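Q: Could you write out the predicted structure for this multi-component system? I'm mainly interested in how the pieces pack against one another.
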Amino acid sequence: MTPAAADQPFFLWTLFQQLRRRGFPLGPNDYETVRTALRVGFGLASRDDLRAVVIALWASSREEAAVVAALFDQHVSWDWEAGDPTVTASTGPEDHESADLDPSHSDEDLVSEITTGNDVDESLSTTPVGTLPTFDNVEVPPLPYEHVFLPQYPVDFRSVAQAWRRLRWPIRYGPATELDIDATVRRRCTDGVVSPPVLRPRQRNRANVLLLVDRHGSMTPFHSYVRHVCGAIRQVGRLHKVGVFYFHDTPLEGTDPSLLSPLSGELFPRLDAVLPDVPPLVDGILMQDEDLSVPIDAAEVFADYEERGALVVLSDGGAARGGYDPLRLLDTVAFLKGTRRWTNRTVWLNPLSPDAWTGSTAAETARHVPMFPMDRTGMYRAVDVLRGQPATIERPLTGLLP
Amino acid sequence: MPDTDLSQSYAVAIKNTLSGQPTAGVSAAEAPKDDPDKTGVPPEVYLPSDDLARVTDLALALGRPLLLQGEPGCGKTRLAHSVSHALAMPLEIAYVKSTSRAQDLLYTYDAVRRLFDSQLGAEGPKDDAGKPLARHARHYVSLGPLGRAIARAESGRRSVVLIDEIDKADLDFPNDLLWELDRMEFDVPEAPGMGHKAAQVRPFVIITHNEEKPLPPAFLRRCVFYYLKFPDSQREVERILAAHGIRADLSSKAASLISEIRKKDLNKKPGLAELIDWLLYQDAKGTSPDDLDALPDREAFLKDRADLDRVERDLAAT
């Protein structure tokens, strides 16, 4: 190793750090494995060979393989034929930026134009410029590597899965395959004669979850995050049945607005006075697809999840724009009342943090239904509520379950 | 962390096999005598890409499970057969079902039969010494595929274990296997002393995965990963077809047809296995390369109604 390379980290270490920063579950053991593989002679034949070894040992899916490959190209940029790799191993994109993207020589005209603009008169806030500055059609040299963009959500796949796996409703069902020792012994004792063994079905999780997702409008920025969370719950939540349906603003609509007339004197009316009069809303349509184009009868969906079902609403509840809409609140409360006919386990997950709810419809909704932010702790608390822990809310919609 | 073991190389062995040499070399010395019934893995027509052979060697050397992902019909399962034949290692197959439990791979304990036998008392089945079988639990324990492989490794012989379509099982399945795959040892709580522990050699585990469910990260960490792609060059497809004994003129025509078919926007792209079956049939029928353009018997590889319609429309248009 030459002195110049001595203060640069080993390229494998740089790559390892980069992957760890991107949430790859790699430990010292994995690092050691690659070194061991190199030591016994794997990955030394060519650059592609080395890359294949690193991918085989550090990636565990096709997507991860693409990320490792891209990062490998970015950080291992030496010439394979040149010999000692540590001499020219780069430490990261910073190097390239300074070398290849040096703007000084190409944009000199522009820079001078801006400086002359400042010189004219400092007392004037605006300076008339005759024409727009012209840009030379400068060829920017292509980067020698690809950028790797990975979405980083407030909650990673694994945490969502961990939170939702706690939602269990174990029930024995299916074919009887397990030996029930207690029952067999009991039967033997009571009958006193040789009797066949008693079998019972295996225990499985029968918890069902219905996810209702708000789409479009103020929820647009959160689409990919919500999709990430729903996907994680669906794939690794290990629940019996997970349904995802979509709506816009309020799950169901159509409550009579005249119910609000007694409150017309107030600027930000609370529903408490008319709460008992709000009729439960059960009829309406939900959407089966993200584009809100395939309708399905809501009653049909609810009937499907009636047994051991939990309801999760994923919506900002009006907090993203911060407005207060009594009509929206009325519809939401009527809908929540309606859902109590088939489940009393309902939570609301809000992609915005609680301090953003203040003063909006969401804050009012949170008085009637357990609402949690869609982060790690929020999701754990939401699952706790679905597991039956009491949640403290200001005006729960009680006593409506038949 | 097990020692790296470079004594076996699949890349070398498969080259010998393909070039017609007997599978001697690496494996003649240890040509198995201990359990002759396990040696008869039939020869497998299999042309691994250089990358795949290299990654297989890497997994073999590090003693880690090899996790294979890829489109259906690209030869994930066949690799295990090929490795087993090329290196003359016994093959143990575990086809995972939705009801599989991790323990089944190691051993099964037939409690129900033991109960029956014990209820018969002195009338029940007896062992060689004339004692009732039900006295000892070990008579009711039978080893599973991984269990047999570990037991064999204990006596110094390596085997290939294929865990096919691991994602079909419950999510607990891979998690329950972590310890056993890491340490290659297990115990039988029902019959103490029946456990096994791999000593010098470790069984070579190949796991196939269809991406139906993601696997737990803790499990993935311990594997060597490879994604099996559809062969990307026509030449390679031709070589594979030729290896399966398809006529040269037919296979060169078919290779270009296949790349065309796969370029179409199909719902379900045909896998290599289906295409080979289809071509073997055409070969046997004596179809001429020109007749292949009309894609006769295309139902063999198009399994979706919309795809069939689309291909028919395209054919009518040309």
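A: Regarding packing and overall arrangement: Strands of chain B lie at 66-70, 91-95, 107-109, 141-143, 160-164, 185-186, 196-197, 204-209, 224-228.
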